[in-house]
Automatic annotation (TrEMBL):
Entry GO CC: extracellular region
EC top class named in words: hydrolase
Signal peptide per UniProt: 1-21
Assigned protein family: Belongs to the metallophosphoesterase superfamily. Purple acid phosphatase family.
Highest taxon of source: Eukaryota
Domain Purple acid phosphatase N-terminal: residue ranges: 53-144
Residue span(s) of domain Calcineurin-like phosphoesterase: 155-352
Record key words, sorted: Disulfide bond, Glycoprotein, Hydrolase, Iron, Metal-binding, Secreted, Signal, Zinc
EC number: 3.1.3.2
Name used for this protein in its record: Purple acid phosphatase
Length: 477
């Protein structure tokens, strides 16, 4: 107790000394080898039965959460693109017909990629579904979110840069124990582009079978990273995002987007905007114009929580990918502040980092202060590119830790955002292999719209409190 008091006091004094000093966790865990799991491993097992549906995954299908888009692959022949579903297991009172497509990538020929749209679902309901026929039929279930409502509670998981290594498997398994209801995926899915020729397609297929254990049962909201670009002229493949776009449909039309690479959805009490780092975003481009209109659709009285997903982080202090987010910052940061985005999740950097609420909008090319400043209207920026892919950890952080960086650690893991009501959400970063109870970095996120007055009163106290907690939990390790 005395020790604890002394510890808190010394942290407090340190804080007074250097303002917003962030924390660089010194924790180091031995990595598993950064190699992909061999194809013959059970995590990639092909389901039994002739032409059995595999790589089953779902995503939100509409703007408000009453539809689901189900996608899967049949390897041998098209077969039916049909989903049978209902409210109890084995009793499927509804049938929907979907469609299928296929593509080639160099000399790889994809299986038949099916897509089926389930519409008019009830909120907050468990549905059971079946795809495939006879001996090859497979059964799954999913739960719809609560009705869009300012106080609807909902727990999201956030995963990025997952890949298909033993570290990826650890992340996936830990995520599946978190109790979160859907995944906000911040780009770089399979890392299949690390392979050549035929194997690119093969590793997309194995990744689809790998994530099925979660993605067939709860929606994953997709966004694209650089590993989805697959610009490979040496193989004659120059169509950007080809495999990704064939395999991972998004509900972009529902938010009046003209590209599956950027879109928005509402889910429970959250409005989620997905942006594409690797699509044009400067002024007058389609993405920029769409986002300009999209701000008008946000109603914080209905969806208090405003979340943005991008691949490349804007406030990153890792040596890896340092300043790669500058171009997007200079275009979009003003909007993020103006519209009081609550939190921005990014991936790309294979480590974990969280920023303070900072902005750098006063700087322009001829004048102004070039340094980010604390800004209560700014989002918290969180990098979770720590899914565990074969490229390994980004373990070198810039030294000293910049003022904008609140906490950083080079370990694999995932995050959860547990929204309680319109004012409070519990955020938690979960390092792999610690079990679900170890909170390495966690804090209460106060809503930027509803929590503003509340926050003004508590801002300083809370930040200090959170910093002390972080120091304490880091120091205990
Ligand atoms: C798609 O499947 C059809 C029917 O099996 C086949 O004839 C066609 O060549 C395939 N197309 C591509 C692009 O692989
Ligand atoms: C999309 O555009 C249509 C037609 O202009 C409009 O009725 C609808 O509200 C828009 N939806 C969104 C989510 O912006
Ligand atoms: C550039 O910054 C200066 C000083 O903050 C400001 O007066 C000026 O309006 C800014 N110009 C633009 C185009 O933003
Ligand atoms: C919102 O949730 C927080 C955390 O559970 C709780 O302390 C607060 O009282 C809730 N607010 C309302 C209005 O229910
Ligand atoms: Fe990336």
């Amino acid at each position: 107790m005395l020790l604890h008091l002394f510890f808190s006091l010394s942290v407090f004094l340190t804080l007074i000394d250097n303002g917003n000093a962030g924390i660089t966790s010194s924790f180091i865990r031995n990595e598993r080898p950064s190699v992909d799991i061999p194809l013959e491993n059970d995590v990639f097992a092909v389901p039994k039965g002739y032409n059995a549906p595999q790589q089953v995954h779902i995503t939100q299908g509409d703007y408000e959460g009453k539809a689901v888009l189900i996608s899967w692959v049949t390897p041998d022949k098209p077969g039916p693109s049909q989903v049978r579903y209902g409210l109890s297991e084995g009793k499927y009172e509804f049938t929907v017909e979907g469609s299928f497509t296929n593509y080639t990538f160099y000399n790889y020929k994809s299986g038949y990629i099916h897509k089926c749209f389930l519409d008019g679902l009830q909120y907050d309901t468990k549905y059971y579904y079946e795809i495939g026929n006879g001996d090859s039929a497979r059964n799954f279930w999913f739960e719809t979110p609560p009705k869009v409502d300012p106080d609807a509670s909902y727990k999201f998981g956030i995963i990025g840069d997952l890949g298909q290594t033993y570290n990826s498997l650890s992340t996936l398994q830990h995520y599946m124990n978190s109790g979160a209801k859907s995944v906000l995926f911040v780009g770089d899915l399979s890392y299949a582009d690390r392979y050549k020729y035929h194997d690119v397609g093969v590793r997309w297929d194995s990744w689809g079978r790998f994530v099925e254990q979660s993605a067939a049962y709860q929606p994953w909201m997709w966004s694209a990273g650089n590993h989805e670009i697959e610009y490979m002229p040496f193989m004659g493949e120059v169509t950007m995002f080809k495999s990704y776009l064939y395999r991972y449909p998004t509900p972009y039309k529902a938010s009046n987007s003209t590209s599956p690479l950027w879109y928005s959805i509402r889910r429970a009490s959250a409005h989620i905007i997905v942006l594409s780092t690797y699509s044009p975003f400067v002024k007058y481009t389609p993405q920029w114009k769409w986002l300009r209109e999209e701000w008008k659709n946000i109603d914080r009285e209905k969806t208090p929580w405003l979340i943005v997903l991008i691949h490349v982080p804007i406030y990153n202090s890792n040596v890896a990918h340092f300043m790669e987010g500058e171009s997007m910052r200079s275009v979009f940061e003003g909007w993020f502040i103006e519209h009081k985005v609550d939190v921005i999740f990014a991936g790309h950097v294979h480590a974990y980092e969280r920023s303070y609420r900072v902005s750098n909008i006063h700087y322009n090319i001829s004048s102004g202060d070039p340094y980010p400043v604390l800004d209560k209207a700014a989002p918290v920026y969180i990098t979770v590119g720590d899914g565990g892919n074969q490229e390994g950890l980004a373990s070198r952080f810039r030294d000293p830790q910049p003022d904008y960086s609140a906490f950083r650690e080079a370990s694999f893991g995932h995050s959860t955002l547990d929204i309680k009501n319109r004012t409070h959400a519990f955020y938690h970063w979960n390092r792999n292999d610690d079990g679900k109870k170890v909170k390495i970095d966690s804090f209460v996120l106060h809503n930027q719209y509803w929590g503003r007055n509340y926050q003004r009163r508590k801002f300083n106290k809370n930040r200090l409190h959170s910093v002390i907690l972080n120091r304490a939990s880091t120091a205990q390790l």
